[in-house]
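Researcher: Please translate sequence to structure tokens.
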Amino acid sequence: MIQRYQIMKNSKKWIYYKKYRIFIVVLIVILSGIYFVQYTYNKSAGIRFVKNMNVGWNLGNSLDADGKKIKNGDPEIYEVSWGNPVTTKVIIDEIKDGGFNTVRIPVTWYHHMDEKGVIDQKWMNRVQEVVDYVIENDMYAIVDIHHDKWFVPSYDNQENAKKMLSSTWSQIAERFANYDDHLIFEAMNEPRLIGTEFEWNAGNKEVREVVNNLNETFVETIRSGSNENKKRYLMVAPYCNSSDIEALDDFVLPKDERIILSIHEYIPYEFTMKEDVEKIWSKDNSDDTKEIDNTFNNLYNKFISKGIPVIISEFGAANKNNLKERLEWAKYYVTAAREKNIMCIWWDDGSNEEKKGKYELFDRYNLKWEYPEIVYILVRKSDK
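Model: Translation complete:
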């Protein structure tokens, strides 16, 4: 028997048998890893929360209008200063009826503060009124700090920025302390060095570090508040809301169980933003699709696969009289995002009575959808 075993051990069959066993072990390890990633992904409360938000619409160029020549005027003066009408509940009702489940409400605060940083109550009341329009529709509302000038991310300004960030968010958090998970706070919009070589890229080590520190201050401030602030979801961004590898590699996620990463992604730039350039886009052209694919794959691998939710809080394609291409782009973009469980919020800049905004989907003056075909693509939950 021993002799037969030795003969078998030295035979080709035995060698194949050993290779087969090794193959099975390796396959089990690989499948276990895939299962672990999917288990983490599927079980993340944050991922499930973001899925419920479905798709969103930005109330752009309204409460974020900074009214440079106005100081502590009536809220309506600011709200209409960039051309849009006063936001009404009817407008938000129409957004809900259009199929959107989330409204991001960009807000600029610094023009509504006294010399001690106390927010004017008329302005706070107005912000709350618009938030209530959203919440009463059983939608999700996101409130941010948008065009405030004080959060310059530099070492020299860091302490001042922390102080202002904490003071501003303390007041906002106190006002909304009893609002549940349907209200989300977003720390800062596109924190960056305005007017410098680092404005629209990944920045440098200094600015990325300062943004991390400001995000920590934001989370600490909200969590030190009362009631629902102890547990509401919070959105933070890397430098300039950038998805560049360099920005994400240096990004430090605050240690908290209810954090969402906020990214702005208008890609490819020539098609979505650049004036009168690249009006054509095709899903069949890899040069057109590769940036979208690479970006979402990277966000998935770095965050989603680890249970960290991601929201593209601003995206869109400017109108260049190219509706056909915009439709094809929008379908590809949101489908690619949904496959990775990344939630998207369209940037709608609205319009004035004379000129339509580049990203406008909803005509707030006439209460109608300018591009219902785009809306249909955005709000549907499946491409089947």
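Researcher: Any highlights?
Model: The first strand starts at residue 55 and ends at 59.
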